[in-house]
Amino acid sequence: MALSFLDLLFPKRCVSCGKFGAYICKSCFSKIEFIEKPVCPVCQRQAIGGKVHPGCQGRYRLDGLVVAARYRGPVKSAIAKVKYKWVYDIGKTLVDLLAASLWRFGIPDDLILVPIPLHTRRKNWRGFNQAEILAKSLSLKFNQPYGEYLARIIETASQVGLKRDERQKNVKEAFRLRTGADVSGKNILLVDDVYTSGATMTECCKVLKKEGAGEVWGMAVALG
Ligand SMILES: [Zn+2]
Ligand SMILES: [Zn+2]
Predict the structure, then answer these.
(1) Which domains does the chain possess?
(2) 112, 126, 161, 207: which one has the fewest Cβ atoms less than 10 Å from its Cβ?
(3) Other C-beta atoms within 10 Å of 16: how many?
């Protein structure tokens, strides 16, 4: 591959081991732990196609979960890298990871991709929302509609280091439907970078289902 002018100015380095040449080098790429067996969004035990187990179903719960890889090693480094500064090529790698994993999941085909929103203040400070870029890229790649239907109305503290019940409490009532958004009868695929306890996505799912949404699935690059 020929080096472009930009490559010479900003040489690519592996986000995981620091080697020059690519953002995720071959050796680190081979260490990515793909989710070979989809899991239930509620109990995170193995579930066919990523669909919620019948016993885990709930009126306002997610209907399924799509995740590409474990939140470890190069995937964790790549996600950390684009959190505060979006690097197109790294973002594209994350999108490709998801795209390559999709066949394992039994998602409905008429889904609208909806990003998990950041609070306006945080988005302005950061300059972008990584979930929005991921959702938009996937929407273009798969020719599926995209909609920014949700708003984060409470600037929640970081979920990192919190236990499951603390996470739920932290994001409770943090979201609402955007003015003018109509989700009734629509199937929705919520998009974020990492899925850990699922508290954030479940809270968003609740807002959407209370407004009459049909199936609501979650999708994240990594399972934490
Ligand atoms: Zn590497
Ligand atoms: Zn389950």
Answers:
(1) 34-223 (3.40.50)
(2) 161
(3) 21
Dihedral (C-alpha) 162, 167, 169, 170: value to the nearest 10 degrees? 80
Q: State the pTM of this model.
A: 0.92
d(CA 208, CA 222): 23
Residues across the chain = 224
Distance of CA 90 to the CA centre of its chain: 15
Contact 47, 39 (CB under 8 A): yes
Compute φ and ψ for 199, nearest 5 degrees: -60, -45
State pLDDT tens for residues 78-97: 999 998 888 888 999 999 99
R_g of the chain, CA atoms, integer Å: 17
* pLDDT tens digits, 33-48: 999 999 999 999 999 9
Helix (H, G, I), strand (E, B) or coil at 49: helix
The rounded Å distance from CA 13 to ligand 1 centre is: 8
Question: What is the number of the ligand closest to the CA of 45?
Answer: 2
